[in-house]
Amino acid sequence: YRINYDIENWRRIASYLNSENYMNIHVLNRAQIIDDAFHLMVTGQLNSTVFWNITNYLLREKNYVAWYPMFKALEYLSNI
């Protein structure tokens, strides 16, 4: 199931992911956050700015598992 936080918690998550400490969140949880945020954005339940702020951290991400939901999101976006 998807988790939709209130806007303040989404901002906190984005801030933490974009900090030096992002690896303190397990890679599976990082992947799930991206997946949840994307699906909530697509269904209009989350502002797209929040999603893109969350994904900014991927510039430093080296683990494929965390990148996978972003690849799927980009694939989806390329087909609409």
TrEMBL record:
Top-level taxonomic group: Eukaryota
A single cellular component GO annotation: cytoplasm
GO BP annotation list: peptide catabolic process; proteolysis
Protein's recorded name: Aminopeptidase N
A single GO molecular function term of this UniProt record: peptide binding
Protein's organism: Camponotus floridanus (Florida carpenter ant)
Keyword terms: Aminopeptidase, Hydrolase, Protease
Entry similarity comment: Belongs to the peptidase M1 family.
